[in-house]
Amino acid sequence: MDCERRHALRTLGALAAALVVKPAAAQSPALLARPIPATGELLPAIGLGTWQVFDAGGDAAARAPLREVLRTFFAGGGRMVDSSPMYGASESVVGDLCAELAICEPLFVATKVWTSGRDEGVRQMETSIKRLRVEKMDLMQVHNLVDVATHTRTLADWKAKGRVRYIGITHYTSSAYAEVEKWLKTGQYDFLQINYSLAERESEQRLLPLARERKVAVIANRPFAEGAMFRRVRGKSLPEWAKEAGIASWAQYFLKWIVSHPAVTCAIPGTGRPEHMADNLAAGMGPFPDPSMRKRMAEHFDSL
Ligand SMILES: NC(=O)c1ccc[n+]([C@@H]2O[C@H](COP(=O)([O-])OP(=O)(O)OC[C@H]3O[C@@H](n4cnc5c(N)ncnc54)[C@H](OP(=O)(O)O)[C@@H]3O)[C@@H](O)[C@H]2O)c1
């Protein structure tokens, strides 16, 4: 199916306004999906990050569990995969494995430009498209605002020409939020990717409300603070009230808290383990915490 037809079908799907995505395996429960504000297209709320874990090079043994992560992700209704030329061989590994699994086109593939200068940016983005084996990129983001003025001009041009479907900016630390806010306010972006978790909540002060007001989709990166949150809860049981609310693991506790924020479109936990992928996907299935439950979850996390 060509990209235009794929896009038309996605838009039609969005108009149906159902906030669930049917997983590939018909018997699995549906995954929460959120509309991308710019178009209404639905995006499953649990995505997949590829930093470090997918930098496996050509080693077959190292690639084997990653193939299973992608298979589990896709079969469970996952669609959004995030990469970057900064992540070593991750783009190539994702592209190769998705080609083997024949899932490159149905995925929502996001990557980044992470270099300086117009020509170098164009060269890097062309390479990413080849490595990820897509006809056009679903989402191209300026990584950590590197040479953002230059790349934003290129990306606006590429979007107008249909080479990318959405454009965005990313960052991962609160020290950059003032600069992120400045660029977000220019109104040029469909997506903001920013760190947001129970351990890193600062973006909910200004950036998340601003994104919501400006109708910009939000991707929450570092949802487990790069794994540090699991070290914090090691050896500690989930509270009974969380289990009663349908939370079966700490990963689900952390992710359900993130995706139930009204500004968040999806979270992108990174994992190289299929069983963790399944656990993370389960966080995208209901029920979800309401504001008072989110408050209780945050207070409990702070007490640990
Ligand atoms: N500036 C930027 O644009 C930027 C910056 C940072 C991150 N990102 C994006 O955000 C993604 C996520 O951030 P991150 O990878 O740094 O960190 P993260 O997702 O917060 O944490 C990843 C760690 O959590 C572990 N994990 C995942 N699922 C688990 C589960 N169910 N149970 C127990 N442990 C689990 C992983 O280990 P296992 O492999 O063993 O599961 C890994 O060590 C990145 O991969 C990248 O795509 C973007």
Please characterize this protein's 3D structure.
With 304 residues, the chain is of the alpha/beta class. It contains twelve helices and eleven strands. Strand 7, helix 5 and strand 8 form a beta-alpha-beta unit. Bound molecules: NADP nicotinamide-adenine-dinucleotide phosphate. The site of NADP nicotinamide-adenine-dinucleotide phosphate (NAP) has 29 residues, from helix 11.
Question: How is this structure best summarized?
Answer:
The chain is an alpha/beta fold and 304 residues long. It has helices at 3-15, 60-75, 90-101, 118-132, 148-160, 177-184, 207-213, 228-233, 240-244, 250-259, 274-282, 291-303; strands at residues 20-21, 31-35, 42-44, 48-49, 80-82, 108-113, 137-142, 164-170, 191-195, 217-221, 266-267.
How do the strands line up in the largest sheet?
4-5-6-7-8-9-10-11
User: What gap, in angstroms, lies between the N and C termini?
Assistant: 50 Å
Main sheet specs = 8 strands, parallel
Task: Kindly state the percentage of residues in helix.
Answer: 40-55%
What is the helix/strand order? HEEEEHEHEHEHEHEHEHHHEHH
Name the poorly predicted regions: 1-27
